[in-house]
Write a structure and sequence with these properties.
Length: about 850
């Protein structure tokens, strides 16, 4: 029986409100018949219909959609065998550029001039009288700052940090809420607006007022009455505002202070006034993945250290506490957060730098529940002062963007299973509306280098489509005129290198190619390539400008601008100082040029840009030749040897022939063996080192490195109790203490930094053997690589076409493999004994002698 298992609009199966005039549709199918293929799909919407054999990114091509209108898209499919199925997906259009009736408002009496902090939270209020029955009530809202709405004291949404973090000068999102069931006829609408990213302190410099001088609100309540009449109640001078609400302080780094004794009904309100913004962004219906609360953690232990209660939640993550308190009016609770403990059992707060990461709660009488709404922390441990243990129950909520989990991995080794958990939790903790670097210290910025290398692993574990599409929109908007990319997106008050802001930076700026490519390979929708192609070309041009500046001959293809303008082999553990990491930029940057040219050539081919494809392919060959001619002896040996310098040209196929490639691989393996199979790579090399070894005749060395529990290694972090991926391989010694001294970074250490979790791709693609051969897994391969003493492994991913899975086990000398192939795809199965078979959709079982 054929059935439609997923039918989405703008990558949502429900709840889509969009300002996209030509929305995209995708669907997946399932059948109990093997070798199923789609014959035809008919998509109908708004009087328009199209027949297609595509299942991803089908673009609506009918009459213009109307604003504030509900639509139903209908899908009818037929398989090659004659089976049929149908489905519907409902969505609504947003404003579609309808002018706002409401106006931006703020508190004209509030002047915020303090440096390094966030402004006092504002509460806006409007009393609403409705005299006749309401059919539908919608709120459209956005803010300068971050906001939360309540109608008659009840929150209208469970999301955090609306309207979201974007390149505010270019794009600002608004949210739509159906509040029909909230209305009583005599209602009070309240909006609490805190500083957030736009007005509050941000970046480790603690700059504030980066976008606007104080908070502002823009909102409309759109009423449709039962009799067909319509009314819009928008923000204007009839609204009231106060800074005397219960949220006394809110800052992304410092935390939140909440005074439960403050009742809004007793607060002193004054008239709001129209506010003129300093920017003119395009305001669009929310196109991202909202931050919401997910897992609830309960303490694994509670200990008293001095006058503090120390709670261990057993997992490092990003989120907030939720406290259930039996308190007295005026009683003050102070909650601090940390990733690790000191030797005496107290919280280690030193690596937070200037971030206070503190929630302060002032009680009212009786039982009460408190959880911060306008901040978040990265933590495993908390301390609580001001109450006895018997009068408080502490829980913690994990916050991250609402991303559908689609991938999984498990195997016979418990340490590798914990590594996979660490990879997933490192991702969850840093997919917080933007891809951040860390969730705890005074940073939490959209560093491009981290997601550039982690993209394939992220896209295997989660449906990243809306999340990355949103972030890439900001990257396109913020690309420098000369082609470089800000190292953090949105840039928001930070620029590196500050002396030459238009400098292109290898591997970090590579995100403009690597991230769309990872998303395309995972989801199969070429629109992400088309949208970002001009940005990619501009960046590659910038690479060659900087490489060729004052250079001649083959050195024009060696990118050798001073290391101070690059990150190089960032946090490579085989050299102790930041300057030494940066000094390796000549190798990392040149390899980056080759990688960018090769990928942009492939992308040009996909987009039908034949001349571009040939041009970039030629440039890739010239860069490869220069790397081998200038940086090696021409026979596979680096003139200056370190792991990353071999890993990149091996993984990126830069050596001229198989013989030299083998010699280079042998040299890498010798370096790895000499280093006791410990990691010596930084950000650019770490994702690829196991591939570089395993795919070039050194699978045993790859597995020895993967399974190594000595420091530095992935499993060392697991062995000493890490529950996320660390920024630094040597972040803790075996006593649980941090040994890092003065390395030029100012004490830079995070225990929740996902970049090195890019090793996940090796687990999925080599250990389990599940690897896409065509975008979206339209064609894929299952070719398990055995080693490391593993006796079983299993990986699965929900592709755009359905579930693909590889599950193998070894019993004695018998290898058994089960492969699941989605409808409409095909899989090349390659067994350890070399036998192969290509199969269509269905579930298949294979065996081999080993």
């Amino acid at each position: 029986m054929l059935k439609v298992t997923r039918f989405s609009v703008e990558n949502l199966t429900a709840g889509c409100v969009t300002d996209v005039s030509r929305p995209r549709f995708s669907f997946s199918l399932e059948s109990d018949q093997k070798n199923g293929q789609l014959k035809n799909a008919r998509l109908s919407l708004n009087g328009w219909q199209t027949d297609t054999a595509e299942q991803t990114g089908v673009v609506y091509g009918g009459p213009a959609l109307k604003p504030f209108t509900a639509y139903t898209a209908e899908l009818a499919v037929q398989s090659m065998s004659g089976e049929t199925a149908s489905a519907e997906v409902l969505f609504e259009t947003g404003r579609l550029d309808t002018p706002w009736t409401g106006r931006w408002i703020s508190d004209p009496a509030y002047c915020f001039t303090e440096k390094g902090v966030s402004p006092a939270p504002m509460v806006f209020r409007k009393e609403i009288r409705i005299s006749k029955p309401v059919k539908r009530a919608l709120i459209c809202a956005t803010a300068m700052g971050i906001y939360d709405l309540a109608l008659n004291g009840k929150r209208v949404s469970e999301r955090y940090f609306a309207p979201g973090f974007t390149s505010y000068k270019n794009s600002l999102m608004y949210q739509t809420y159906d509040v029909t069931n909230f209305l009583t006829g005599s209602d009070v609408l309240e909006a609490t607006v805190c500083g957030g990213w736009a007005v509050g302190s941000f970046v480790f410099t603690r700059a504030n007022r980066l976008i606007h001088d104080r908070q502002a609100l823009l909102l409309e309540l759109r009423l449709v009455y039962q009799d067909g009449a319509e009314e819009i109640i928008g923000t204007d001078e009839t609204w009231e505002v106060t800074e005397d609400g219960p949220v006394r302080m809110a800052d992304l780094y410092d935390g939140e202070t909440f005074d439960a004794t403050k009742e809004l009904s007793a607060a002193s309100f004054r008239k709001a006034a129209p506010e003129t913004l300093k920017i003119s962004p395009r305001i669009l219906a929310d196109y991202g993945a909202p931050v919401t609360a997910h897992e609830v953690f309960r303490p694994q232990s509670v200990k008293k250290v001095q006058n503090q209660l120390i709670y261990d939640f057993g997992q490092n993550f990003a989120g907030v506490v939720r406290l259930t308190v039996n308190g007295k009016k005026g009683q003050t609770l102070i909650v601090k957060h940390a990733e690790i403990l000191n030797e005496d059992g107290s919280l280690n707060l030193s690596f937070l730098r200037s971030a206070k990461a503190t929630a302060t709660y002032i009680c009212k009488d009786g039982r009460q529940v408190y959880s911060p709404r306008f901040t978040y922390m990265g933590f495993r441990y908390i301390s609580i002062e001001g109450i006895e243990e018997e009068n408080i129950q502490a829980e913690a909520l994990a916050l991250y963007s609402d991303l559908e989990p689609i991938g999984s991995f498990e195997c016979s080794d418990p340490l590798l299973n914990q590594l996979q958990s660490n990879i997933v939790w490192g991702a969850k903790s840093n997919l917080m509306d933007i891809p951040t670097d860390c969730p705890q210290r005074d940073e939490r910025m959209g560093w491009t280098g981290d997601i550039a290398v982690f993209g394939p692993t992220a896209c295997f574990n989660f449906d990243m489509s809306r999340f990355l599409d949103k972030w890439l929109r900001d990257m396109r908007a913020e690309q420098f005129p000369g082609g470089g990319i800000p190292n953090t997106v949105p840039r928001q008050g930070y620029g590196f290198p500050t002396t030459m802001p238009d400098m292109a930076v290898d591997w970090w700026d590579d995100a403009c190619v690597l991230v769309p490519w990872a998303e395309y390979r995972a989801r199969g929708d070429a629109s992400v390539l088309k949208e970002n192609y001009p940005m990619m070309k501009k960046y590659v041009k910038a690479q060659f400008f900087w490489a060729g500046l004052f250079s001649f001959g083959k050195n024009r293809y060696i990118w050798n601008t001073p290391g101070v303008f690059h990150f190089g082999d960032w946090v490579a553990p085989d050299v102790p100082k930041m300057g030494q990491w940066q000094a390796r930029a000549k190798w990392t940057a040149t390899a980056s040029m080759k990688n960018m040219c090769s990928l942009v050539s492939q992308i040009a081919e996909i987009l039908g840009e034949k001349q571009d494809a040939e041009k970039y392919a030629r440039l890739a060959e010239k860069v490869s030749d220069a790397y081998c001619s200038v940086l090696t002896d021409g026979n596979g040996k680096l003139l200056q040897e370190f792991q990353t310098a071999y890993v990149l040209p091996l993984y990126l196929n830069m050596f001229p022939n198989a013989e030299i490639r083998k010699k280079a691989a042998d040299n890498l393996a010798a370096l790895v063996e000499k280093n006791d199979y410990c990691i010596g790579t930084g950000f650019p090399g770490t994702p690829y080192i196991l591939f570089a070894l395993a795919d070039n005749g050194h699978a045993d060395a790859a597995f020895q490195m993967l399974m190594n529990t000595k420091c530095p290694s992935w499993l060392y972090e697991v062995k000493v109790g890490g529950t996320t991926i660390w920024e630094r391989w040597d972040g803790l010694d075996e006593r649980g203490l941090c040994p890092i001294g003065d390395d030029g970074t100012g004490g830079m250490i995070s225990y929740n930094h996902y970049a090195s979790g890019a090793v996940g791709a090796f687990l999925y693609q080599r250990v389990a053997g599940l690897e896409a051969q065509e975008a979206g897994y339209k064609r894929f391969q299952v070719k398990p690589l055995l080693g490391g003493g593993l006796t079983s492994a299993k990986a699965s991913v929900k592709t755009p076409y359905g579930l693909a899975e590889s599950a193998w086990k070894i019993t004695g000398n018998i290898f058994e493999l089960t492969v699941t192939v989605p409808f409409g795809t095909e899989c090349a199965v390659i067994l350890p004994d070399g036998k192969s078979e290509t199969v269509g959709s269905g579930i298949y079982h294979f065996t081999a002698n080993i």
